[in-house]
Amino acid sequence: MHLGAIATYPVKSCHRLEHERADVRLWGLAGDRRWLITDEQGRMLTQREEPRLTQIRPVLAEGALVLRHEGAGELTVPAEPGDLDPVKVWRTTVDLSRAGDEADVWLSTVLERKVRLYYLDDPTRRPVNPEYANPDDRVSLADGYPLLLANTASLAAVNDWLAEECPAEWPLPMTRFRPNVVVEGAPAWAEDGWLGRRIRIGSVTFRAPKPCDRCVITTTDQETGARGREPLRTLARHRNVDQGLLFGLNLIPDGTGEIRVGDQVTVLD
């Protein structure tokens, strides 16, 4: 098995960045989900409510975030601490820095609604769900865990089901599932057997505490923002475990280091 792809998502729910290498930090991959958009009342916005977020293409520059949109050009936002507001990210409330009026206005124009941009200036502020983690585990602004792993053979299995049962939405790309790391060379659904074990990618070791329960974001075309019905209908038929539609495996780093496309992937324990 080897690492086939790496991706980060600088702004939660916006477009991805693809990498040949990435630095693993204890809270996730460097640069992953350090920024968050909220509505005017400070409520977190994701593609669940706003699929147009797919059209915002962030790039990380030296000490800054560059936001790009086809109709609005680009805006550079300094990655600096600012005034802190408490923002609820699922079950946790975390203090985030206001990015400033210019970013708020730019994004509000793009999304045609009043929004705010926030920055997680200190990525050690947010703990991982203690039910599945150690007390000192931390996560950025990802849904719940520092990294998400997916398996190309499992995607091929989903696409086989789609070809038979819903050819109108076949095939689906891996980008629908928004993973950080993609494993190649493993059998389909091998990751089910990795739950509770340790996985080494290159020289970095991770724990696998929980499978990933998928939501409506997987039905959203990550290039256009168009929304369909798959893969949730197919996952509901074939991968429904205790009312969770499973695809992918959450990871928590045990240490730091660099991972590269092509690195060997080994299941330990």
From TrEMBL:
Signal peptide: none annotated. It comes from the Bacteria. One of its GO terms (molecular function) is catalytic activity. InterPro entries: MoCF_Sase_C, MOCOS_middle, Pyrv_Knase-like_insert_dom_sf. This is Molybdenum cofactor biosysynthesis protein. Residues 122-268 form the MOSC domain.
